[in-house]
Amino acid sequence: MSVLSINKNNFDSVRESGKTVLLDFYADWCGPCRMVSPIIDEIAEENPQYLVGKINVDKEPELAQAFNVLSIPTLAVIKSGKIICQSTGVKPKPQILAMLEG
User: Fold this and answer.
1) How far is 33 from 66, CA to CA, in rounded Å?
2) Helix (H, G, I), strand (E, B), or coil: what is residue 15?
3) Would the pTM of this model clear 0.85, i.e. be above it?
4) Which CATH topology does 4-101 take?
């Protein structure tokens, strides 16, 4: 499954999906975000059981604020509509997968 581009118009349907959701809060100008992006893409392709989405904080400041994103990249995991895990900074793939499985 490919990565979804998430905005305020489609966020509710993503949050309420039956799947565990991984959100990547990023900005195009952010170097560390560009380091994490291919890892997020890999996870989306290899794990169809998860819904994976990216949120551009410059285009969606309301969503960034709703998740208290103060620094990017920030990753958030949602299960059953609730945030169960949130992490800031570059993480290796095994740590991101552990967040999803946790």
Assistant:
1) 19
2) helix
3) yes
4) Glutaredoxin (3.40.30)
Amino acid identity at 57: V
Q: Which residue stretches of 1-102 are H helix?
A: 11-15, 31-46, 61-66, 93-101
User: Annotated catalytic sites, by residue?
Assistant: 30, 33
Query: Residue 21 is encoded by which pair of tokens?
Result: 């959701």
Q: How many C-alpha atoms does 69 have within 13 Å on its Cβ side?
A: 24
Q: How far apart are CA 38 and CA 23, in angstroms?
A: 14
The closest of 82, 57, 55 to 71, measured between CA atoms, is 57
Q: What is the pLDDT of residues 14-42, one digit of tens each?
A: 988 889 999 999 999 999 999 999 999 99
| Residue 7: CA count within 13 A, CB half-sphere | 4
Q: What is the mean pLDDT of the chain?
A: 95
Rounded to whole angstroms, what are the CA distances from 76 to 12, 68?
Answer: 15, 11
- Domains of the chain, by residue range, sit at 4-101
